[in-house]
Amino acid sequence: MWGGYADVESQQPWENDTLSLAFSVTKSVSALTIAKMVDRGWIQYEKRVSYYWPEFGKNGKENITVEILLSHQAGLLSFGGEKISLLDFIHRPKEVVRLLEDQTPHWVPGTAHGYHAVTIGYYVGTLAQKADPKHRNLSQIFKEEIAEPLGIDFHIGLPREQHWRVARGNFLSLSQILLKTLTSPTSFRIFSTLLMYPDSLTAKSMMVLKEETSFMNRADVQASGIPSFMGLGNARSLAKLYSFVAMGGSSKGKQLLSAETMKKVLTPLTRGKDLVLLTNMTYARGLMVLNNSRGSVMFGHGGYGGQAALADPYNKLSLAYISNYLESFGLCNDPRFIDLYELVYDCLDDYLSKQ
């Protein structure tokens, strides 16, 4: 379903092929791209990142494996106190890579986990390009290995000529965010920590970009292809991608991943308190592991503003929600999504009761 405005100022309606920023849901799409590389034999989860990227292996990063990186256990939350521009990924790629190589983890890798809100995309993107036999960037790998073969209208970095399809993001001010977080203890804890404790791990992870979030409406920024949050698609494209996760790797005669790789993707690697999000989080190899209200385990990812994409392998069901009207939720806990999600399960219960 779709509705509302892609741009409220011009009264442009949301169409069936409108695209919108998926924010951190992009992390899971990037993780599935790495999984595809695992399937192809180009990368192994158990190997050290430095096997593919030798310059990475210093300053306490020597023993970080691919799966430690993907599951937010590496401790590489920040850029060492520096803030970088969203456009540095395009205009200064070599400098960004050197910055990544010089970082020191905030804890001993593998001993704790904390959400790498921004940096993980830069690390995973560089790793993918180093490990790919053709040295394509992650955006190209996703496009050529997943999106085009499976007919998925999602883009990690949108070509500028497609910008006309993108819904304009309506971003909240800081005061609006704080007011809205009062209804969510988890969100309030995160944002109040950002304001009151600038030296916290929460702030180190999330406050690493120079620009305001509204900068993300620009066509050149949306073309940057940052694998942590610069993916553009719609609910249908994400639900289609996640249908392969819900079905064990294959659906309708097409295959995203082998059953063996899919099993690895869905195996939890962490449990307990996330040092950045300040709540209990379970991560697999790039996906969040969540429990739904019906007692099933779900795999997927949330994104800033309320975005969500989830797979329920037990019921063979995938769900996605995308909005350009951003709220202060990012862990698949937006009430707008939850209302729709519960209705879908009510419909499923009704359907199954009649079989």
- CATH architectural name: 3-Layer(aba) Sandwich
**Rg computed from alpha carbons, rounded to a whole number of angstroms:** 19 Å
Question: Beta-strand percentage?
Answer: 5-15%
Q: What is the domain tally?
A: 1
Q: Report the mean per-residue pLDDT as an integer.
A: 95
Number of helical segments? 14
End-to-end distance? 25 Å
Shape: globular
Q: What class, by secondary structure content? A: alpha+beta
Offer a quick outline of the entry.
This protein has one domain (5-353): 3-Layer(aba) Sandwich (Beta-lactamase), CATH 3.40.710.10.
Keywords:
about 35% helix; four-stranded antiparallel sheet; three-stranded antiparallel sheet; alpha+beta; 14 helices; 11 strands; about 350 residues; Beta-lactamase; globular
Describe the model.
With 355 residues, the chain is of the alpha+beta class. It has helices spanning 25-40, 49-52, 66-70, 88-91, 93-102, 119-131, 138-150, 174-181, 185-196, 201-206, 219-222, 235-246, 259-265, 335-353, and strands at residues 5-7, 12-13, 20-21, 155-156, 231-233, 250-251, 254-255, 288-291, 297-303, 307-312, 317-321.
